[in-house]
Amino acid sequence: MLPLRLPLLFLLVSVALCQYDDYDYQPASRHGPSGPNCHQECDCPYNFPTAMYCDSRKLKFVPVVPSGIKYLYLQNNLIEEIKAGVFDNVTDTLRWLILDNNQITNAKIEKGTIDKLSALEKLFFSNNNLTEPVIPPSKSLDELKIMHNQLSKFPSGLLSDKENLTSVNVQYNQLTSDVIGGAFKGPKKMLSLDVSHNKLTKLPAGVPGSLEILYADHNEIESVGAGYLGKLPLLQSLRISHNKLVDSGIPAGVFNVTSLVELDLSFNQLKSIPEINENLEQLYLQANEIEKFDLTSLCKYVSITSFSHLKHLRLDANMVTHSSMPPDSSNCLRVASDIIFE
């Protein structure tokens, strides 16, 4: 994907990695002995004195964080609550807070904790028991991950002042389209949004025009609104696989936008190939009910300079075969290196 800009390449790689490899974590033992400015339950390496490693220690509480700590690792514990006062020494200096793989509920997060963190840049809260997001007041927040929780609420306006937020991942929750109706309107620099594995019946409304990556796999989406992608002029990767898309829910030309590089509509109920733009490079349509190879969906016009830039096209697990391709397909798909029917 040479045309992809570097920010998108970085995001595509990062969202593909295991969620627990997203932060720069190394076991404390690799950093050498712990410094004196540290809680007794944790390690604060001399060669990385602004980090406090409290991960994988069967902790049931968040320890009091000493002043000077900017990076706090609390993943893989048994933490159930966050008591007031634990962050009092770092309210304006803590940048990273990693709380993945604990047992925290909204009711056990006391006031005067996360709601006081005014400099936080990354908040990772995956694999807990939250029913609604916990958002710090920090305007520096650039990455928010609350995957594998029980989110069923997302009050409008929670992210309205997050002017530096670039990535939000809330996959594997209980969110509905009504619940997230105004959830993502605020951030004007957001590049990546993942709402996969929820209960959406349509793509999220009101997302920022800055978005480059939108993942909504494994929901209950039946249609895409006409003009939806027209409001996202920078969108390059769209995944709506494992939904309930049907032909009648795909308005003519809805995917014919010049910015898209990757489009995944696999595992739906489509009977025809939707119209795409010639700039698209990756098209995934496997496991639908496609009955005909309509070349005009891929190439409106074919000439020396006008042709499809598709490199990868998947049509396996449909009702078309290689013999279904029209004789002049090679002119349209002249740069395709991978067309899969079986």
From TrEMBL:
SMART domains according to UniProt: LRR_BAC, LRR_TYP, LRRNT
Subunit description: Binds to laminin.
Location in or out of the cell: Secreted, Extracellular space, Extracellular matrix
Homology family: Belongs to the small leucine-rich proteoglycan (SLRP) family. SLRP class II subfamily.
Lineage start: Eukaryota, Metazoa, Chordata, Craniata, Vertebrata
Name of this protein: Lumican
InterPro entries: Leu-rich_rpt (IPR001611), Leu-rich_rpt_typical-subtyp (IPR003591), LRR_dom_sf (IPR032675), LRRNT (IPR000372), SLRP (IPR050333)
Major localisation: secreted
Location of the LRRNT domain: 37-71
Record key words, sorted: Disulfide bond, Extracellular matrix, Glycoprotein, Leucine-rich repeat, Proteoglycan, Repeat, Secreted, Signal, Sulfation
Leader sequence segment: 1-18
Source organism of the structure: Pagothenia borchgrevinki
